[in-house]
Amino acid sequence: MSSTLGASFRVTTYGESHGGAVGVICDGIPACVPVDLEQIQCQLSRRRPGQSRFTTPRQEQDLLQVSSGLEDGHTLGTPVHLWVANKDSNPKEYESMKALYRPSHADFTTLHKYRTRPKSGGGRASARETVARVAAGAFAEQILRHFIPDLSIVAFVDQLGSVAMSADFDCHTLSREQVDQNPLRYPDLNHYESAAGLLSRVKDAGDSLGGAICCIIQGIPVGLGEPVFSKLEADLARAMLSIPACRGFEIGSGFSSITMLGSQHNDLFEQKTGGRIGTRTNYSGGVQGGISNGEPIKFRTAFKPVSTIGLPQQTLNTAAERVEYSPQNGRHDPCVVPRAVPIVESMAAVVLLDHFLRHRGQNSLDPMGGSQV
Amino acid sequence: MSSTLGASFRVTTYGESHGGAVGVICDGIPACVPVDLEQIQCQLSRRRPGQSRFTTPRQEQDLLQVSSGLEDGHTLGTPVHLWVANKDSNPKEYESMKALYRPSHADFTTLHKYRTRPKSGGGRASARETVARVAAGAFAEQILRHFIPDLSIVAFVDQLGSVAMSADFDCHTLSREQVDQNPLRYPDLNHYESAAGLLSRVKDAGDSLGGAICCIIQGIPVGLGEPVFSKLEADLARAMLSIPACRGFEIGSGFSSITMLGSQHNDLFEQKTGGRIGTRTNYSGGVQGGISNGEPIKFRTAFKPVSTIGLPQQTLNTAAERVEYSPQNGRHDPCVVPRAVPIVESMAAVVLLDHFLRHRGQNSLDPMGGSQV
Amino acid sequence: MSSTLGASFRVTTYGESHGGAVGVICDGIPACVPVDLEQIQCQLSRRRPGQSRFTTPRQEQDLLQVSSGLEDGHTLGTPVHLWVANKDSNPKEYESMKALYRPSHADFTTLHKYRTRPKSGGGRASARETVARVAAGAFAEQILRHFIPDLSIVAFVDQLGSVAMSADFDCHTLSREQVDQNPLRYPDLNHYESAAGLLSRVKDAGDSLGGAICCIIQGIPVGLGEPVFSKLEADLARAMLSIPACRGFEIGSGFSSITMLGSQHNDLFEQKTGGRIGTRTNYSGGVQGGISNGEPIKFRTAFKPVSTIGLPQQTLNTAAERVEYSPQNGRHDPCVVPRAVPIVESMAAVVLLDHFLRHRGQNSLDPMGGSQV
Amino acid sequence: MSSTLGASFRVTTYGESHGGAVGVICDGIPACVPVDLEQIQCQLSRRRPGQSRFTTPRQEQDLLQVSSGLEDGHTLGTPVHLWVANKDSNPKEYESMKALYRPSHADFTTLHKYRTRPKSGGGRASARETVARVAAGAFAEQILRHFIPDLSIVAFVDQLGSVAMSADFDCHTLSREQVDQNPLRYPDLNHYESAAGLLSRVKDAGDSLGGAICCIIQGIPVGLGEPVFSKLEADLARAMLSIPACRGFEIGSGFSSITMLGSQHNDLFEQKTGGRIGTRTNYSGGVQGGISNGEPIKFRTAFKPVSTIGLPQQTLNTAAERVEYSPQNGRHDPCVVPRAVPIVESMAAVVLLDHFLRHRGQNSLDPMGGSQV
Fold it and tell me: Is the pLDDT of residue A92 over 80?
């Protein structure tokens, strides 16, 4: 449903861009798991506006608050409510756009679906909504890592406009620290200057630019995901396409598989060091038949250029009259992908924890589910 | 959940590749809607194997049967059970592959997730499972068309291996009849011979090939889809990635938006003939903020080359020993996309009907929901 | 939702009283569990009409059929479709009642909710719908017993009209065989003749009678059920009240707790033989704070007198004219409770298996969920 | 699931008894509906502790706070987060009980299910959790009344220990104001002194007492509720049994139907003033075949005596040693039913709004769901 995601691990979010707060209830949580709120704050800060010249100057500290579900730093098994206050909202800035449809925003569709829309800004369609996703995802990741200590979820920008990473860049060893070494979260330093230069020019021109994010997940055991409608890649695709501005998703070979032959594309099974059964190649992206196969899960997402640009644009007002629209405050990102990196990681973590718990419920070898009595 | 899709309109499927039947229960159906079973049979026949030299020779008539929910050709509002018997299943043919992991199939992951797998073939991971999807989708489409008479859902192959359609080919006026004019469902006749020649060579070589399917949906009113986790494109992406062999999804401009500027990509609002508010371009693919905007919904999906090929391949058996595997019967499609066309249409119809009913429930202007008393 | 019950173990049913079949898809099933179809058939036969002079003479063999999910007598982890054909349906018998509202039936509400209703009988409101519940429940019970070998679910009639069981009758040692020793499934033989005589007189008078069913479940470990909205007794109550003609549910002390003092009612903890912590009394009915506490789960349900009676009754036809209604065929039970006994057991089994799997998912001590790799 | 209730209108709650706050996210809300927060505060105040000598002296103002979903006093169609801070929590008071199992509390089951429990009190099993239910219910009631202006939901205490209301007391005309005329919410003034005297004696003795609450809902149109698993009475039963201390539920004639004949119990259809089709009697309690029939919906719930009593009791500590337990602070209600009245009304409102929206979604006569374009 609209504001809830997940079957066994469920997150339910709330909050308009310029309301009092944005928050999330996480439910279905295993008990007795240690949770470090600093790690959640850290991911929130990676998403936070105002990090660099490439992000919107809106000032939000995004300080994490917790109302329930934790005691002495451990989960109780009860719902955890995580939230962040909106501080720098300024509904007045949105006066000028109240009565018109900003191009490629949700103003038009929201007004026609609900017969109303927030006067105070983008409402649920604002990127501010993603605060709740990151809080939930950073929380989910810790729960999952408690059970899978080797878990690694690392997303990064692999293309910015036309500046793509080198085909031979090894992204399987990247850490988040390496990704964060530059404000674009674009780890291929051979092309970084080119990307940064391009984005600077776009920004100076009052325009915006698209980009792509790749995500690599390592440590997931064989068995997560369910056949038919809850294939792991299907739930990942849904989670990614639900991120504002995301326009595409591909797993493993993705769209490049269109031009491949089966004899090239098939991942041959072989024994790996230590006896593990793995595949020689990983065109499957770590998922076969909708179920994780123990290889790194690798997917890629496309983000369109941000709809808010500084340039004047023709549009209609709510009386269907032609008007010219220029945003007044300039509070927007020239490209969404640097800040979207932790959002992608977070949505992946939410999906994976859900499937981890679903798998245990159906297929656990612990018959009594841990009960001691 | 695994075998159920949808919130207000829900489909729940069952059936292994070589069990007795495959079927689906559709629930949450508006009553008093006329249903023509011939139209469902027609879509099933478009999916059916054995249609041409480009499809598997497995012989299944796939005759639709109905056990409930209809009376005098109209829905009762109760669950509709649609099913098709498996006739040409031959579990013995699968003897040779029982004890090994076919490359890029679900054999390995299924066995390790469930500690068992069907001896008789691909089980739920087989393309045979999609019979139930098509039955449900063709049914959903009729329900939806009852409320939206102008509805049109047309999918087609827009790329086969490296043979893509011309960029200027107009696909918005295509009908299913036009799509079906050739066995590849590849409507750009300027490149058809090239595509057919390529696929013939691939088939003759015992190999398989990837392809892409584009789907265009017209007539959907403004307002379907929900912000945040059930954006229309998110639910479409999930539905598509849940189809066997689907590796990617993009809505509107999709992956090509990565290289675009906001000033190019933004769809400017304008008044259309008749006063309707529309957009000049449709890079959004008919969805803005996760909600349909009245423009054609356009998405594209990537399908990998079929995993079953005629060529011998190295793999491991379940004892982790290296073996060579060659399928015995040659029953496979050299490319999945011609038969996947009705599957893509069906999954789209299921998602759209669900969102149509969800939208009515939340936002109807008919307060009593139709009650007469 | 209407035709689906459960979160981790899910059953979805279909079938009108006089359609082609009634059936159920069970999903979320642990794999590798042996299933004995005879045991399911046995419960279906306990529900079957025509068992004695106290039940409707409709003739249905109710032979169980299975289309999926089992191989070599074991679950595959995939959906299991169980169904039974309708053989003795005779829609013509219902001609006389087509255009009127039978008193206390669902004719009136169904017609006004859906603007149509099955011409052929009670549709989904018919007791025939419960065939699917019993198939699903008998299946669920086997799965659950695989993990909890000591499980015992025994329901029985504890009141028939005004003839209640003795207060000191020990019902905790009853087996289904003992319950089935008489056609009323009324195990207190001291009052059996009185109950049977009463029901005979009611039947001969063309009337019907209410009754009550008690259910005792033994062997459930501590920990099933979830706080707040999915308390075990809440989900049991929903499941029971969803059975046609069920009008009330009470857990443990139930309605009699109204007149009790806390000092009487509190179940004091003590050590039992073998060191198990248990309670001295069991007014809680085996559930505390919505979670099973290891004591027998005991609940009781009230069933109203069957609405179909042989006596003529005043009612309205669909033109709102006053008419007199007498059923033509006399196919009804004078009291529903003997045949409802396996239905109550079945619904309990469905709820318990669901909660068992949910508990494992959230609280398993087996981190990897059974994955071997 | 545990902390979420509803399909189309969904409430998700959080909050331990002695955590920072208790709150709820309501989702699936129709837009443009006026909401008066005072009315929600009013119901919260009816639930609030410290109202009279019959309720716990814990001091909580329970001031309602809203973080999202409303603008200018109207719903936006987005999730509404309602919450209340915990002010008078005093975890230290619970020191004495930390290491033991209070009789008939959830201490034992919570600890064994989750292998931990809140040190600070009852956690989610505390009655404090019901704050979120009342906030959600009072909100839901306003939404529902917007569409059904004649809606009336009135609950009241109809039995306190052995002091039942007169059988001929007319409870169909009661308003909440009348119910609130005495602190017991026991409207039959002929027996009020007797009930109050009994409860005073119980309280003075350090004991507690059970009671019953009846709820009458008027104005619901024909058509709410779904056949099979989501019968209206089934969902009401689940909602009621999910309230702490609730032990039983009956709809209409309920348990008294056990001793009735069909010829007595059947509600005969007849035309009412104004042409409405109704029933002469209402043993069905306003629901037939699981669907509302336009008559008043009437149900009754049983509440056990409060588990916390002032008297010393034998129990075990977590080391399984016998100990005597007496609560230190005396903060408990001698009987839960007066404060449970608004909780029962609230849970009913949540269920009814959900079914109202579900019915509209499936059966609306407004094809486009309100879309203007």
Answer: no
